[in-house]
Specification:
Helix content is about 55%, strand content about 15%. With about 1000 residues, it is an alpha+beta fold. Strands 5, 6, 7, 8, 9, 10, 11, 14 and 15 form a 9-stranded antiparallel sheet that branches. Strands 3-4-2-17-20-21-19-27 form an 8-stranded antiparallel sheet. The chain starts with 11 loop residues before the first helix and ends with a helix.
Length: about 1000
Amino acid sequence: MMNFAIFAQQSISDAEEVAEASSGAGWGTFFLVVGILVLPFVLGSLIANALKMKDLATRLSLVFLALTMAISPFVMTVSNNESILSAIDLGIDLAGGTNMVFEVDKEAAKAEDKQITPDLMNKMVEKVKLRVNPTGTEEVTVRRVGADRIEVIIPGADAERVKKVKDQIVSLGNLEFAILANTVLHQEQIALANDSSNVRDNNVYLGQDVVAMWRRSALDPDGDPKISPGSVDSTVYTRQVEEDGKSITEFLVIVRKQRITGRYLIGVRETITDQGLAVGFTFNERGGYLFGQVTGEYQKRDGAGYSNHLAVLLDGTIHSAPTVNGVITTTGVIEGNFTQPEIDTLVGVLSAGALDVPLVEEPVTEFTISALLGEEVQRKGFTAIALALAGVFIFTLVYYRKAGLIADICLALNIILVMGAMSLIDATFTLPGLAGLVLTIGMAVDANVLIFERMREEQARGSSIRMSIKNGFEKAFSTIFDANITTLLTAIVLYYIGTDQVKGFAVTLFIGILTSMFSALFIGRLIFEIAERKHLFKDLKMMSLIDPKGIDFLGKKKLAAMASLVVIVIGLIAVGMRGSENLDIDFRGGSMVTFRFLGDAPEVSEVRAALEPKFGNDITLEQLTVVEEGVSNKLYRLRTVVDDTAQVSANIKEAFAEGPYELVQQHVTFGEVKEVAAPVDETKPKIEPEAEAEVAATKLNRAVEVTLTQEMTPAALADQAAGLLRKMNYVDPETLVTGDTADDESVKVSQVTLTFDSFIPANDVDRVLTDLKVDLEKDPHFEEINTFDQSVTGDAKLAAITAMGFSLLAIVAYLWVRFQRVTFGLAACAALIHDVLIVLGLVALGAYLSGTPLKAIFMLEDFKINLPIIAAFLTIVGYSLNDTIVVFDRIREVRGRNPALTEAMVNTSLNQTLSRTILTSLTTLIVVLILYVLGGEGIHGFAYCLTLGIVVGTYSSIYVASPTLVWLMNREQKKAAPSTTT
């Protein structure tokens, strides 16, 4: 790879300021690095020496290193005089955010002869998503609104973040590499460029072909050009143009037939060169070939007396002009005195690719959104999370006593590690996400349970405390490793293939698994060893409420199979009968209407209470804030699955027809009624021009400009006026009044010119306008009425399903290798599919039963599948898989080298692991039941699925996975039997 060179012009004063700032930042960075990387090892050595256990110094240091890195984001936040909680990025449901709607630049699209179609808008949405949320770990919503708009919702965004996101969204992202013209090689193009007859829109033409173009230098953050004539070879050809009293340099750029653009990029990354921050790039094979041709032709020649410069253009401006010193093919670096925000934006934009059509730079609307979940809902949710967490700690401490205390310490450290890691990668926390995090902690108890139950077995054999600890960790390791590795494989596949929301879950799952393994296996063992060597343990007494022996689990396999089949069939019938009603707004889209009230703004809960009788629970309600003339005003945006905007408008009007709050009404004004010549009808036979002009002059229509506070299509307004004419007994009134506008008739506008045919008398026109004003002003004024697309598109749904499919394949492959039999993987997948189908059916059944007296008993509601419930399904898969592999690992141990697998072996294994299975399930159920009962609407559906999933997952590991494994293994044995007897 050959790095490009770039020469930056900077004044001495600027250089001194930069040097001073760099010095301060450098010292800050130095102390931060020392604090994170050095102090933990110093502290580890000091504590190891104090304990007289120097052999543990490295292990202690690693623990302190991990904890130091985890708390560093919170320390940095406090040191900046900010709240410690600001280190955590909260989702829209908890912290609100910024809502922006961008509109396609229709004039630019028309100039480029591009049709604004749904397919094109969907492509635009995907590219904007990649720009604003490239990692998929942030809860940013991007979706299509109406026919030509894109909505972007950024959680908890400050002004600086909003500006950055705007830049990422509206930047076209058109990257191009070309050559700057020089006076030695490009005299022909220079001559053409100096002849104004060849130049159109700053492009230089030879016939119909563009051979060169005049382009300006991009500006740095201080507004100075990044490239100036003094920073390139003197032979580079430029011109000066006057603009706003300033002289601006333009460079002549040579255009080749095969233009090298961003479409050839396959990789973009941030890098550092001698010039500072830069962007590294990699071309595909075709791009590398074309780039090699250009750089080979223009590379530096000895004795030539001049250099050629490569122009790196982004959105039509030159960002850098490096000297071409040699042949460059597939990789290179773009330098240009970039700041870190510019680098972030540039990498995001180039990675996502160029927009097909431009977006208008300023959003159509920009609002601040309040938290979607009210304070009361949030309070309930956080209270439930705190109680659930306390329940896990208390249960572990009471049941396992001293060992439980160590487990609780490990769990507390695990929480710190997870929160710190999530903060370091700027992952966004939602209320269901935080609940899922607590659930992860509940499931992390499983590792400790496995270890402690192994210690119990060792003590029962008469082992010493030291040997019980050693063997407990070593024997539990393989089970913990297998269970967590398979879940890690699932997380990796989900991240690379899944939707943005699935990616966010996958990152949380990945981090949670790694930290729980580290805290249980590494930190836990370290604490146990220190406690044992300091003689803090004389015994390892634990409660023993469960001591199963000789239960014939597989003897009930047929009964269990029938029960599972009946529940699955009934559930799937319920799913089929509900159809699209199974899906929430995330998966369906619908209509959105923005409105406001006269006087004081009501609480969101009061507005929701008025709307739900008309729309049911299938709504989301956002409180918006907009600053108008220095005053903050509150608005409300309703989203509903009803896609008929007229019906939605009528429902809102009825919802507030009576009550203490009055909607702001529509206001209409009319211009002067003018007489205008009727347009010539092109369909009639042609007559002499003089006669035609005379006829047109004698036929004068009446035109009036209507100004509305709420946008309408010209056709809709004309239809409403025609309806009033019909009441006045006019025949075929649609032909007598038209709504004329310069824009497309399908586009909503606030100004429409109504034209009445000369056949209608002036007094009737006045009557229509009077009645039209009365009718229109009966309706509320809606700031916005539009349809919006689903957050999860059809392609995204397919990607999620594909991700799950590949996850199952990865599980089968790993268990095949690990257990030496593909049957273990197939049996585990059968249990996973069983669990998902049952819980899916029970969600639909729960929704049906919410209309019966059972609603109050079981706290049921009209559950619908949304993104939190999808996260719950993924969690169920992980939990069920973990449970199943624990059983399989014990089956492998009991089976030993025996080629056959008998039901007796499986029953023995299930009896030996039953105490662990019940304890883990009980601990996790403590969490989800508290979340379900006390968590409120924010996490109710999420907790409902998890409660069912834990019960079903525990059941399936015993009655689905294990019998399936026996059946598959015996089937293999029967197939192999003939070949072994011959």
